[in-house]
């Protein structure tokens, strides 16, 4: 018996998925935006830990997977991260899914955070948080002080000069929380209540610029940070997605704007694809999308500052 027209129309073809970026090949593959050399090779002064709320895994418009693609050239599953060669502090970025640090964290992360000699910076608003530039200056001075205190001790291959000239070879640990504002605050409070945040933790926050409260003027200077990931609606023009915040601060610490622009190239490409799918009126019905999808409250505020570079 031949299938009825109704049966044939309901039989949808399964979309082919790209093996590398894991997006649909035909219309959403973003491999064209990926660099030939993964950006992870540029990380010499810092490592990144992202505490991600489980609900973020359900969102189709989250930005963190795009960071993984830019840094490593592929998505990293939780199993791949846990079984990686990062047995101690030798990693570029680790993503921890849970409602607090310590809930499902691997031993390497907990050991790192409990080490009083490590310099750990949490990027999240808090009454005791410092301005970003002041906080990073303090962190860098601690790294310098640690290296000076260890002069004269036995030198090893892991505590010499890094490829970028970092004499101590010691890295700063940057922590970001990837969640809605409501969940992010809960995650911070739970981690603090559990006593997992290190006593030597440096809290920093990104302060809104005057443009978010006045006339919202735009600047054409590419050296200044502007919001470009328009898939999720921000509370103000100065609010950044997790990916943008991570990219900008890592670029600041490494003194290398290639990190920021490399990650943003992937985000920009995804935004262009979403624009092609979105209805002009923002209608979310079948066949269209909207740039107001998602919470939007998970974004971080920031000052428009120049990204310095130590490259010659």
TrEMBL record:
What is the name of the protein in this document? tRNA-uridine aminocarboxypropyltransferase
Q: Which UniProt keywords apply?
A: S-adenosyl-L-methionine, Transferase, tRNA processing
Q: Name one Pfam family in it.
A: DTW
Its ancestry begins with: Eukaryota, Sar, Stramenopiles, Ochrophyta, Bacillariophyta
Mention one GO biological process in which this protein takes part, according to its record.
tRNA processing
Stretches assigned to the DTW domain: 14-279
GO MF annotation list: tRNA-uridine aminocarboxypropyltransferase activity
Which residue intervals make up region (Disordered)? 143-166, 281-312
- Domain of life per record: Eukaryota
**Coiled-coil regions in this chain?**
none
Polar residues composition-biased segments: 144-165
Give the EC number(s) listed in the UniProt record. Answer: 2.5.1.25
Question: What is this enzyme's catalytic activity, as reactions?
Answer: a uridine in tRNA + S-adenosyl-L-methionine = a 3-[(3S)-3-amino-3-carboxypropyl]uridine in tRNA + S-methyl-5'-thioadenosine + H(+)
To which protein family does this belong? Belongs to the TDD superfamily. DTWD2 family.
Basic residues compositional bias, start-end: 303-312
């Amino acid at each position: 018996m031949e299938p009825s027209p109704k049966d044939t129309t309901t039989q949808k073809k399964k979309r082919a998925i790209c093996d590398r970026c894991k997006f649909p090949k035909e219309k959403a593959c973003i491999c064209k935006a990926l660099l030939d050399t993964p950006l992870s090779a540029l990380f010499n002064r810092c490592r990144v830990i992202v505490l991600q709320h489980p609900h973020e895994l359900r969102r189709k418009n989250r930005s963190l997977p795009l960071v993984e693609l830019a840094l490593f050239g592929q998505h990293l599953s939780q199993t791949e991260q846990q079984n990686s060669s990062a047995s101690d502090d030798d990693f570029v970025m680790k993503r921890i899914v849970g409602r607090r640090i310590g809930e499902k964290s691997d031993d390497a992360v907990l050991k790192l955070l409990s080490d009083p000699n490590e310099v750990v910076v949490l990027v999240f608003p808090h009454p005791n948080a410092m301005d970003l530039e002041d906080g990073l200056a303090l962190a860098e001075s601690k790294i310098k002080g640690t290296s000076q205190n260890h002069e004269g001790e036995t030198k090893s291959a892991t505590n010499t000069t890094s490829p970028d000239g970092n004499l101590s070879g010691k890295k700063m640990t940057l922590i970001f929380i990837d969640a809605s504002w409501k969940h992010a605050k809960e995650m911070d409070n739970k981690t603090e209540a559990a006593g997992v945040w290190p006593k030597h933790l440096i809290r920093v926050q990104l302060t809104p610029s005057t443009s978010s409260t006045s006339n919202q003027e735009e600047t054409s200077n590419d050296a200044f940070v502007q919001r470009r990931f328009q898939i999720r609606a921000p509370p103000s023009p100065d609010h950044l997605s997790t990916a943008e915040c991570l990219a900008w601060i890592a670029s600041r610490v490494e003194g290398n704007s290639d990190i920021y622009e490399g990650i943003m190239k992937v985000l920009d490409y995804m935004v262009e694809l979403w624009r092609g799918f979105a209805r002009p009126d923002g209608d979310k019905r079948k066949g269209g999308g909207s740039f107001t999808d998602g919470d939007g409250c998970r974004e971080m505020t920031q000052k428009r500052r120049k990204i310095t570079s130590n490259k010659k």
